[in-house]
Amino acid sequence: MDFLRYAERAATMVNAPLEDEDDLRALLADRPWLAERVSAADVRTLRRLRRDLRPVFAEDPEAGDGADRVVERLNDLLARHPVSPFISGHGGQGLHLHVAERRSSVAETLAAEGLMGLAIVVCDLGPDRLGECQADRCGQVFVDTSPNRSRRYCSDRCSSRANVAAFRARRRAATAP
């Protein structure tokens, strides 16, 4: 099981529009075995989970007890969405862990994967690896996988926009009378 990928999928879910089943199917385009089982109840459950996950990413672990709040929020979510890991050996992949049974709902599966992925990232890499884009008017969340914990933007697009805006502001300041 690739917990980092599950954490990144959780961030993608927080950022994605989830208005209806088609939005969730689009989010699961690379996982057709899940996409075919999507229901309206899954969409409702995942919208609540997204709302509850956003503060985990938005918390500043460097500020006071921010790291403790990240851990507390994740622990609360893990209690509300219990994970039942089991060992599997299908598809010639060798033995590996799954965090939700095949008969689980789509929402239960995504919640279990996302929460375990985020929990492992926080434990192994630290709560400062979860972030919210610092670009004006963005608000997307991300998992920072950079080697030096320096990521501040959700995408290259937001990073470029911020850098261009900063460059233009410096240039205006330098040419101002």
Automatic annotation (TrEMBL):
Q: What is this protein called?
A: Putative stress-induced transcription regulator
Q: Please name the InterPro entries in this protein's record.
A: ABATE (IPR010852), ABATE_dom_sf (IPR023286), Znf_CGNR (IPR021005)
Q: Which organism is it from?
A: Actinopolymorpha singaporensis
Q: Which residues form the Zinc finger CGNR domain?
A: 129-171
Which domain of life does this protein belong to?
Bacteria
Where does the UniProt annotation place the signal sequence? none
